[in-house]
Structures are given as C-alpha cells and as structure tokens.
Amino acid sequence: MTEKSPPRRKNGAAVSSLAERVLELLASGQATTRTEIAGLLGAAPSTISFTVGQLLDHGLVAEEGTVSSAGGRPRKVLRLGGSDGYAVAAELGGRHAHVGVVLPGGGLTDVSTVPFPTADGPESALPGLAQTLAALADRHGRGLLRGVGLCLPGPVDVEPGLVTLPARMPGWNRFPVRAWMEERFAVPVAVENDANCMAVGEHSVRPAEHRQSVMVKAGSGIGAGVIADGRLYRGGTGAAGEITHVRVEAAHDIPCSCGNTGCLETVASGAALVRILRERGLEVASTEDVVRLAGDADPEATRAVRQAGRYLGQVLAANVNFFNPDAVYLGGILSTLEPFVAAVRSQLYEGCHPLVTEHLVIERAVLGADAGLVGAGQFALQRALAHALQAVTGDHRP
Q: Is the CB of residue 92 less than 8 Å from the CB of residue 152?
C-alpha cells in the first residue's frame, strides 16, 4: 500500500507545523539525517522525506556528504540552508549580561560579560546592550545575522515578547522588549524566560533518549524549565516550572516577592541565603558572596547552602514523582557548590519512588553558565526559520 502524502490544509498549517519541527531539530543539532528526524518525531520515514524534500526545494535545508549506517546504505547529512547565518544572544542578570554569538547546531563563540543595569529600567539599560550586540553582528557580518535572542530573569509573555510582573526587574513590566529590539536590528527577536532558555540549551547537547527533563536554575532566584517529549513545555499560560512559589513548611510566614508568604524562594534562593547569613552575623551582600564563603568551606555558609539544597530537593521530589523525567539538570550559581547539589540529590532519592529514580540522571548542566545563552540563540534561530518558512508557504499564523 502506498502511503498518502501528509495532510495539507488550505493555509498549509499542517505541513508547516511538521516542517517547523524538522527545522527545530536541525537548528539545535539534535538530528542530522532523515532517519534521526523520523525517530525523534515518531513519524513515518516517507512523511519526513516528503517534508524534507519541500524544505530542500525552498532552500531552507541543504544536503552535504553522507554518514555510514549499520547494515544499510549511507545516509545523506542534512543542514540548514544558508547555515553561515548566526544569532546574537544575551542572558540578562541583575547587574551584568552574558552575551555571545550562537551558531546553528548550538555552537557558541565570542562569549563575554558586560555591565547591564537592570534596576535602571529597560529604556536606560537596553541601548547599551543593543550596542554590544550590534558590535558582535558587525564583527561576524551583519548580512548573516538571522536573529536576536534574549534570556530574561522573570516571567515572559512569549508571543508579544513582554516581561510580566517581574519581581527583580523594576520598571520592566509589560515593556515591549521584542518590538524594541526588532526595530533596531530588523531581524526576528526571541524573548524568553531564563529557566526555559537553559532547558532548551542543555537539552540540545544531551543524549537524544533524554526526552523528558527538568532544568533547575538556582541563583538569586529559583526557576525551572520543563522538556516534555523533546520539546519545551510551557503550560496553559506559559508558567510551567514556577516552583519558586511553592509553599514549604519551613518558610512559615516569611514574606515573598510574589506577595504571598512561605514560598520556596524565601528559604532556598541565593537572595534568601544572603538574608539568612546576614542574620547570623556574616558580611554578605550578594549570592556571589555566599558562593565564595561556601567555596572556602565557611561552616555557617556551608550549613545554610546545604539546607537550601534540601528545601529545593523536597519541592523537586513532588514534581519528579509526578512527571517522572529522564533527568534533572541543575544550573545557576548555586549549582557550582557541591554541598548544595549533594543535598538536592539526596532529597530526590529519599522523596521519590524507586521506580522514578531507578534510571534518573541528576547532574549539573554540562553547558554551565552558557546554557541560557545557547538556549536564547536557539530560540532566535528557530524564530527566524519560522519566519522564513511562513514566507515560502504563505502560512502567516500569529
């Protein structure tokens, strides 16, 4: 029986959706052949070949060379068409921004850290960042710039590219970050939450069989990004992974930045550790100070860091039992401390069902501090590809 061609709606939406997934896998480096794409998407090889053929016809995908396969003929290697393109990306922090150039497949270059006065508000902070990113683009050829990716430390409304109710970004609420950047760079701009960027960046370099994972960012604040069936899971309103405001018994009635009391953030975040250590008489002004003290084996700082890891592990255990992921990745500055990581791992093994932890990977992010940057660049490249696909198919979905 001959398989029918994939369903095609009048607006091309069904075809475009599959094509977007194919481009996404190629952009992230998770797949390079038709067989790998079919396996990851659970689609028939003929369906993938049909879609890849369309992308080849439109110049969005190209073939270069072959790779040997066990027991079969060599497979043609796929790459993005015009893959000399790149994205510039930035991960914004409280006082600094991590910037760099992200290549198709997840390669990263020209990484540096520059001042970024988040607390001064977007209209004061963004012009300097735009100038830095423009210099990177000029260095690599402005004509090859495909997109700009921004990784923000707060909740993001992805479609309009806005930060919404950010606790640590005064003056940024509902500011049109994407529109502001697109006006200056004239290329697609992706704006995303930091934990989601880290989840996507880390997923792109992990084994293909790790299709369900939780990426935890533990820094001044706490956040998590969820990968379900190989894709970022946003939830109904884009708030999936907001574990920082789960109530924990040990927090009692400590006020939280969200307006409630007793949230995980108040006892397990870097900001909480600064407060706790100050109350115990230590001179600390930032999460970096906490990390320095714990790294020097200061007993008070080490105890506080270990306890913070336990609290985080307790909240994660409930989520891991529910979700049953293949892996839990730990990122953010607190993940550089072994007592913190060990405490999280211990609580997961103690609080989860043995079937859940039997094959569970619990590790630091292999991309380290670059995970968010890689993810932001991937989002930018994918958005650029989606725009290019819409242009050739005529599918102009929002």
A: yes
Angle in degrees, CA 280, 281, 286, rounded to 5: 90
Q: Which two tokens stand for residue 150?
A: 């921004």
Burial class (CB in 10 A: 0-12, 13-18, 19+), 387: middle
- Which phi and psi (to 5°) does residue 169 adopt? -135, 75
| pLDDT class of 10 with cuts at 50, 70, 90 | very low
Note the pTM of the prediction, 2 decimals. 0.86
- Compute the distance between CA of residue 357 and CA of residue 210 in angstroms, rounded to an integer: 14
Nearest to 193 by CA among 168, 212, 230: 168
Per-residue pLDDT tens over the stretch 147-182: 999 999 888 898 888 888 777 788 899 999 999 999
Handedness of CA 17, 19, 22, 28 (dihedral sign): negative
Q: Which two tokens stand for residue 57?
A: 């016809």
Mean pLDDT, residues 75-80: 83
